[in-house]
Write a structure and sequence with these properties.
With 349 residues, the chain is α/β, with parallel strands linked by helices. 34% of the residues lie in helices and 18% in strands. The protein contains 12 helices and 13 strands. It has an 8-stranded parallel beta sheet with strand order 2-3-4-5-6-7-8-9. It has a 3-stranded antiparallel beta sheet with strand order 1-10-13. It binds N-carbamoyl-L-aspartate and zinc ion (ZN). Zinc ion binds next to loops.
Amino acid sequence: MNTNTPNRLTIRRPDDWHLHFRDGDIMRGVVPYTARQFGRAIVMPNLSPPVTIAAMAAEYRDRILAAVPAGVDFTPLMTCYLTDATDPDDLARGAAQGIFTAAKLYPANATTNSAHGVSDVAKLAPVLARMEAEGIVLCIHGEVTDNDIDVFDREAEFIARHLRGIIADFPNLKVVFEHITTADAVEFVQNCGPNVAATITPQHLHINRNAMLVGGIQPHNYCLPVAKRETHRLALRAAATSGSPKFFLGTDSAPHLRKVKETSCGCAGIFNAPFALESYLAVFEEEGALEHFEGFASLHGPAFYGLPVNADSITLERAEVPVPDSLELTGEDIVPWHAGQTLGWRIAD
Ligand code: NCD
Ligand code: ZN
């Protein structure tokens, strides 16, 4: 847009194509952070119990909408948690009724609340065939869960063991390879047709695995898939800022209270919703790619999902923004992404 100056950037309102809101009081506490920035968000279904049928998704959507601050225009886009027992008819009906925007494949036990996930991808064939026929997007947590596979290799191994096969068997299925963390995933997505895309989180653009493991264990830099070595981070930054329509914004904001992160068996997940856009923008600025920010944040996602772009815009302005060491959520502490750091942009009023 031509109103931009070196200190102000106006873009079409962005969307978040992957995040976790949770439910209850936590959900009511975190929804406003996202609704402040984004027009829509793809809401993950890994509640306990998971959101497996359209009726549950419709009720969950209503609870989220009730948490959106008055006067704010925000639309949650719901997903169906695929299991070994998913009913293709319920999924297709839910999509036709506008309840489901996508379905989510968690390999069983890959991450938080995924115990009900798919135990054998081959069993999902009837569901995937139906999704391909109906044009329902498949969002994939792409990591194998086999104990013999090193945690740093689980994404690359998922491509070899499962993703290539899914894409070969269902060539017209729309697939989002979510929160990619490796150069292998970047290359794979680039070499697929236009019906395969990927989301990238802010944390995987900012940190490599040293940030998690050097100088003491850093639980607030731990999420799944785990951050990988520096070569992978650089490949992700190149992909995100390249202007390619195959890569778009998905924060994977995953709120966990401080007490369940800072413990002997800490939860995976980074709570990045409070300063998500500012975090991404820092990366685009460092890469000298501000002209590609709007595509990544606001245009490529809707184009992939076949949805209109948001009608309004958002302006970011240069300012020193100190990120608090912690925030309060349900009367408890939660540590936001970039805690204690200063960011260089803020959302203008
Ligand atoms: C997510 C969560 O906490 O729900 N955690 C994470 O580390 N990203 C689950 C997920 O998306 O893997
Ligand atoms: Zn996630």
